[in-house]
Design goal:
With 443 residues, the chain is mainly α. The protein is built from 17 helices and two strands. It folds into two domains: 253 residues, no CATH class; 187 residues, no CATH class.
Amino acid sequence: MKIRLLPHHIYKILTAIITLNIVMLLGTWAFHFYYYELLTGSWEEASAIKHILKEFSLATENTIATWYSSMLFLAVAIMCAICFITQKKMYSRGRDKFWRYGWIMFFFIFATLSFDEMSSMHERLGDSSTFNPLGDYPLGWVFLLAIPIGIVAVLMLYFCVLQIKRAPWAVAFAIAGILLFISIPFQEYFEMQSWQASTDMANWKRPTFYLLLEEGSEIFGATFMFFSTILFVAYASNKGKVEPLNPSLKVKFSLNRKNLLVWLGIFSALLGIIMFLLFNNNTLLEVEGEHGELHNWFPSATAFLICLLALYIFNRTKYFSPSYRISCLFLAFLCLFLSAYFGSNMYSYFNNVEQEAIKLVFIALLFPVTILLAIRYFVDSKDAYRKGGFILWAILLIFALSFDNQYSAAIAYVAFSVLFITLFSRIQVKESSLHNPGNLIEG
């Protein structure tokens, strides 16, 4: 595989992320001002615009904004994996060989943060007396996770310090991002102290400034880390010869396809088992309060990965037929939409007659697109297993879209896992084979 980003590509990506960050923060402010300030928290008195404003609030669970924040963390995790692969090729001896595994630590940390952002896991743990000796104390998660958070933060900072001579600008952005994350528990603790010190605790309202500061720390902390990983890859891939304000990266690596597909299958199965266990964990499911849905991250994250993979194929197949490249774009946009559809819990909203009509419109649009894409890839595939994979994906996805409960998310996760493995098996892992388009399609 070959990943190449020129400076204008990198700046376009960062501009898009920063723009979306600002939009989500403005949406958070708008919903908070409209709902809590103008309507004093009365949902029944709000107009229909409340549904739109809510979707852009980072401080509200199961929204487009929360999905965006979760996928931003996942994007950082993916970049950390690329950092590991890049440094593995360059540094294979001595201390560098050992410390490159720090990127694996970063990968799991940000993948966990992605899951937590959508599932509210840390709030669930903190609010559950089974896991937290403080019981339902509102700030229980801070005390429960204070020591693990501190240890992880120290390890992350130490790892960054080791990289200072190698990539100083990358380290600067990484440390800035880590410090923003570290500040969040302290911000929440300060807010809780303000609430307890209030003379009218029952009517105390969270100041908008505190809200925006906390949510902004999260998404801009992730943005700094994302840019930091790009700079790390740029330094590594260019052997330290890179301009901090004009970075470009070029990563090329080979993969053993059979082993990779086996590991993808095992990893997908393990995530499926975790999802099943969460379905049956009443301790976490029955915690009071508004929380994200535990099961939505699995189909949402997998669909997001397929979107990135489809875009990669689109960019690496410039000499293919226009219809094939267009089908890649359609698949990318479809999976991006479905990632948000499941990640924001939108599929479970259709629970009355009026909303059922909206769902029928969604299905009327999604079903034919799914079927046409499955047929397109089915015709292109020469291998019976790949043909079966695309057909199975279409059947499972259509089946999943017909439900509006947690089983819909479970079936969708299986569908996206099948598609991801099937689509990945079509990519030629040797760059020299790109001269033969058939190799890239069927490998």
